[in-house]
Amino acid sequence: MYSELNRDYYFDNLKFFLIALVVLGHMIEPFIVNDLSFKVFYVFIYSFHMPLFIFINGYFSHSCENEIDYIKSINSIFLPYVVFQLLYLFFNRLVLGDFSYKFSLLTPYWLMWYFASLFIWKMILPYFTKLKYPICISIILAILAGYDNTIGSYLSVSRTIYFFPFFLMGYYTRKDNLLAKLSLYWRKKYFPILLLLICFFIYILLNYFDYRWLYGCYSYQFLHAAHWYAGIYRLIIYAIAVLISIWMLLFVPKNKTVFSAFGARSRNVYLLHGFIVKLLYARLNFDSYIHTFLDKILVLLLSLAITILLSLNITNYFIGHISKPKLRNIYTNT
Prior knowledge:
Elements: H1 9-28, H2 36-46, H3 49-59, H4 67-94, H5 113-128, H6 134-145, H7 157-171, H8 175-185, H9 191-205, H10 230-251, H11 260-263, H12 266-283, H13 293-309, H14 313-322
Helix pairs in contact: 1-2, 1-3, 1-12, 1-13, 3-7, 4-5, 5-7, 6-7, 12-13
């Protein structure tokens, strides 16, 4: 059950919005090659939704105030990572008939990279915070990592380095301070204009810009940008992610909404929605039925329905029993 004790509706609302975008992004991905509208929407989503999600993870890392809480936090990441690595292996083989994926804790399956990276961030956080200017150092490392062609999917190292600055930004942020400063220095009335300009910028660059830059898992050379100034592109992508994230933080409702309870279970949605997406496209050829504008609206509504379905109490109960001990929300207590 959704307990309102010590809930922060602001972050619950934000997490629901972001996890809905995660599902939507995976649902429209098969169409982006041939559909310009979906591609623009996809690039816009990926420009900020994971950076902001990771920012939230960093923000709630403050809850680990002692060694016991820290160990529990680590276990709440590692246990579901192991369980769902296995579940996706069985699903691929028994349901999809795909035997290409080999089980390995060192090579995350598809969306499980997020848990592998989160585990590493939690592990290195106590050491990184002892450094001077840790955020600046993490950004420099992320830029330099793009020049290295040897960094691959092993332990999701490339994405771990790429997204780590956002995790640290969240860790060094306090909510009262955050909202006060955002309200003071950023005016809501200007942000819709800025948002439109960014969308227009994305639209103009689509023919020249490889959207895989947003994944954070490819080297500059792989992305056909093997020149000395390629790191500047990554800095620009970071800047766009920060600007859009600020806009989202400003406009998220602070009070309880109908989606607050769903947002509290965002991790469940993340872990489970991959089964549905893979089943729809790899097994049922769902994309072959999408042709008209109304069909596209159906995809959007179906994404929202999947998000809500996987946020229900019964799903929370299921997640708690397939991974022992009962898993708690990694962002805040449920």
